[in-house]
Amino acid sequence: MSDLTENILSNKLRTTLKRIRENLMSEEEAAETFDTRNKDKIPPPTLSSAVNLKKVEDLYGLAERVAAAESLVFLAEQFELLHPHLELLIPSTKRAFLQQFCSQTVSQASELRRPIYMAVAARTIDYEQVVTLMAAVKWDINEIMSQHSSYVDILLRELQVFSMRLSEVSKKVPIPKEAYDLLWEHCIKLANHSFIEGFSQAKKCTNGGRALMQLDYQQFLSKIERLTDLQPVPGKEHVESYIKAYYMLEPNLEQWIRSHR
């Protein structure tokens, strides 16, 4: 799961954040010790004591995260609107710097949504528990099952609780569609990753077990489509492709493995 959360920052965004930290942030740890003579830098940001990012009921401070992320996106949009007017107000020799600032920094504001909302999606569902429950499933069965596995219901229940908490947070602060869709995209992709992780731990798998994998995932898809408006379900082709790979002959399977590294 860590690879999904750790790689959420694009290279461009990572570079932008590093540049801001090195060029604009003072090395002083507290505002009280900040040297006011250094007018080109600002003290490091600190989180208000009134903000609680640890309560699962509040989705780990989602309301505050939405206010922060969407305010930044709004400011970036306003700056883009002002860009043509600013070019007329500054010397022509400085316009290249303005263009660089817009293309390298302002343009990255909306990209911050991804890591900000991933911080919520990665913590609100116990994906590790799902993988652990999948490890207890017998995949070497001989009969074709008509009932999906219980871990699917547990995962779906957690996602239903997430949906209800999301509705409660939206009563405190409006959640834009971009943020709403991104939260669900992260949750679904993390759930899909859990399916693949759980399936990959099967020591033995028969045709009946492969059919059960398909049944479990189809049950998940049928229910998740009722919880969110995202269509198609993000990343479902990766899970379906993984299950279908069990049916491949050895030469085709080797090719599939090479192409999905």
Automatic annotation (TrEMBL):
BP-aspect Gene Ontology terms: endocytic recycling; retrograde transport, endosome to Golgi
MF term (GO), any: SNARE binding
InterPro entries assigned: Syndetin_C, VPS50
GO CC annotation: cytosol; EARP complex
Domain Syndetin C-terminal stretches: 59-260
Signal peptide interval: none
Protein's recorded name: Coiled-coil domain-containing protein 132
Protein source organism: Stegodyphus mimosarum
